[in-house]
Design goal:
This is DUF3578 domain-containing protein. By secondary structure, the chain is α+β, with helices and mostly antiparallel strands. Among the domains are: 182 residues, Metal Transport, Frataxin, Chain A (2-Layer Sandwich), CATH 3.30.920; 150 residues, no CATH class. 41% of the residues lie in helices and 18% in strands. A five-stranded antiparallel β-sheet has the order 1-2-3-4-5, sandwiched between helices. Strands 8-13-18-7-19 form a five-stranded parallel β-sheet, sandwiched between helices. Strands 11-12-15-14 form a four-stranded antiparallel β-sheet. A hairpin with a 6-residue loop joins strand 9 and strand 10. Helix 1 packs antiparallel against helix 3, helix 22 packs across helix 23 and helix 24 packs antiparallel against helix 26. The termini are far apart. About 1% of the residues have low confidence.
């Protein structure tokens, strides 16, 4: 289909479409798919250029757009400079503009100064390239929203194509080619995210971590430093101290209040941070379609992980105040088709909440005044768990805190912090290792044999056999493992991608430490089955002697979460589960044992 026809059909049908159902509408499809394909086919774009389009997020935007981004300048329509098609709100025509993002300008300089900075930026760009003298300085999109109107003063030059007199493809392509040539010469000095650091961060198999250990070992600092690896403390890190009197999900997500005489939603720092993570997805050009979000791998790779640190997480019962998150966490679904992905998740905060409260106040408190499309998405679908959110709780296991159930252990990656990230006094002044940078998972289904094929366990058979042997020992006990454990073991194999038997057994060893052994606790009666003279711990030790034979009695297993600062980054350590089982067995001789010190 020609560019002329596509631009005409989108703009000509826009006013009518805005009064019709959003999901699956053909006008939105023309913009998001057909127009992108047409531009790619008709122009010789640089391979690293990103093309993003938006018809709205859950509901219709007032001004739809399609942008072409050079990652060297910007990877987001919220900042930097980029060519963009802007469709007038009233259906009168289309602008091709050299636009620039206003969100970062407002963030850096405030709303009052943002327009002045935009005018300064426009003047600098136009003065640096005389070709823009043939392009108009002003835009009138006939918009009724603040976001739509902001596009009007965020332009360094534009050309208008009236709907009733849309030029032929030869003119449209010529104009776009010229603007792309101008764009290639633009130098704004605007910094872009460090995508390479994000790409190199190691994906976790689950976005919920429990860091357990004695006080003072650096659990909270570890989370803080993780945020600094790929982002910044100001933008991608939130510290929330858990209170002992928390018992309801409202303590962490907020609640409806009528005390002021009006129905208002009282927001929390946690909810604001979750919304902030969603804003990062919007800025990366991720598309919201109903309850799903879709995008390309190149977009996903620029999205930073957002670290929510729940400090002293078990001062209150986790199963109570964190119940909603624990349930919704298991509804996350990733689906990949080539380099394109779809992600969906149930809502933490239901859409019905928005129907009963003061929306203007809530919108402002959540920082969404400049994010109309995302706000409309929340109104229609609620606020789900964004895929770039990692929740990490610090846990002290002592008499002042609550233990946590197997329900929590099943849903989290539980780290005995002192075992995985030991405090080595001899290396206090001159560290010889550092934690690897971690990131959010991009898979939820461990049955993907195409992903497994690149690992030592090419079809998952070795992992399946291993877990079956473990479950034979745990049969008829409350410690038995189910499908979730198998899925997460396979996800761990995929994300760690072991290429040898030693590496695979290192993954299995850590899986035992994170998912299996923390479940086991009790006295001699609870840990001894009637058909055996050995305890469960003794049976596991005997089994693992053969199942982990390559690493059981040697210091050859690889540390998967620390890297050496020497030339060889691989650190070799003892088998963690062997040491832990020996310790738990020793504790059992005193009458009771558990995983925790």
């Amino acid at each position: 289909m020609s560019l002329k026809r596509l631009l005409s059909e989108i703009e000509g049908g826009w006013v009518k479409a805005k009064n019709e159902k959003f999901t699956g509408h053909p006008i939105a499809t023309l913009l998001r798919k057909d127009l992108i394909l047409a531009i790619k086919s008709k122009l010789d774009l640089q391979s690293n250029y990103l093309i993003k389009a938006s018809a709205g997020a859950g509901n219709w935007a007032d001004v739809p757009w399609l942008s072409i981004l050079n990652p060297a300048i910007t990877e987001s329509t919220q900042s930097g400079v980029y060519p963009v098609y802007l469709f007038c709100s009233d259906g009168s025509g289309v602008y091709l503009s050299l636009g620039f993002g206003t969100t970062d300008l407002k963030k850096q300089h405030g709303a009052a100064q943002a327009r002045f900075k935009a005018k300064e930026l426009r003047s600098n760009i136009r003065n640096s390239d005389l070709r823009l003298n043939r392009w108009d300085e002003k835009i009138d999109l006939r918009s009724t929203t603040s976001l739509g109107r902001s596009y009007e003063w965020a332009s360094a030059g534009a050309k208008f194509y009236p709907l009733e007199n849309m030029p032929d493809d030869s003119v449209l392509i010529s104009d776009l080619t010229e603007l792309l040539e101008i764009y290639a010469d633009v130098h704004t000095g605007i910094q872009t995210p460090n995508r390479e650091a994000i790409k190199q961060a190691h994906p976790l198999s689950k976005p919920f971590l429990l860091l357990a250990g004695i006080s003072g070992t650096g659990k909270t600092r570890f989370i803080r430093e993780q945020a600094k690896f790929t982002g910044s403390i100001e933008d991608t890190y939130c510290l929330t101290s858990v209170r002992p009197d928390w018992h309801e999900p409202s303590d962490i997500l907020g609640y409806v209040s009528r005390l002021s005489g009006n129905t208002e939603y009282i927001v929390t720092d946690v909810l604001k941070f979750i919304v902030k993570a969603w804003i990062a997805l919007e800025q990366a050009g991720i598309i919201f379609q109903g309850k799903e979000v879709t995008g390309e791998q190149i977009q996903q790779q620029q999205v930073k992980p957002f670290w929510l640190c729940l400090d002293e997480m078990n001062l209150a019962p986790i199963e109570q105040y964190f119940a909603d998150y624990l349930s919704v966490l298991e509804t996350r679904e990733w689906e990949w088709q080539g380099e394109n992905f779809t992600y969906k998740c149930d809502a933490l905060l239901k859409s019905t909440v928005f129907e009963t409260v003061s929306q203007d106040k809530l919108k402002q408190e959540l920082g969404l005044d400049e994010h109309e499309e995302l706000w409309q998405h929340f109104i229609a679908n609620g606020i789900a768990i964004p895929f770039n959110l990692i929740v990490a709780g610090t846990v002290n296991m002592d008499e002042t805190t609550h233990g946590f159930s197997r329900k929590v252990i099943d849903r989290a990656l539980t780290f005995d912090f002192g075992e995985f990230f030991p405090n080595d006094f001899d290396a206090f002044f001159e560290p010889n290792s550092t934690p690897k940078a971690l990131s959010y998972p991009v898979l939820t289904d461990g049955r993907d044999k195409a992903e497994l094929s690149g690992t030592f366990d090419k079809d998952g058979a070795l992992s399946l056999s291993f877990l079956k042997q473990i479950n034979i020992i745990l049969e008829h006990t409350p410690f038995k493992l189910a499908y979730r454990a198998l899925n997460e073991l396979l996800l761990a194999v995929i994300t760690q991608s072991p290429q040898s038997e030693i590496e695979l057994q290192s993954v299995l060893d850590d899986f035992l430490m994170c998912k299996v052994l923390p479940r086991i606790e009790g006295d001699i009666d609870k840990l001894t089955k009637g058909d055996s003279n050995q305890t469960i711990l003794e049976q596991l030790s005997a089994l693992l002697t053969s199942e982990l034979s390559t690493i059981w009695d040697t210091n050859t297993r690889h540390d998967l979460f620390l890297k050496s600062l020497d030339d060889d980054p691989i650190i070799k350590i003892e088998c963690r589960s062997k040491m832990k089982l020996e310790w738990m067995n020793a504790q059992l001789k005193h009458g009771f044992t558990s995983f925790w010190p």
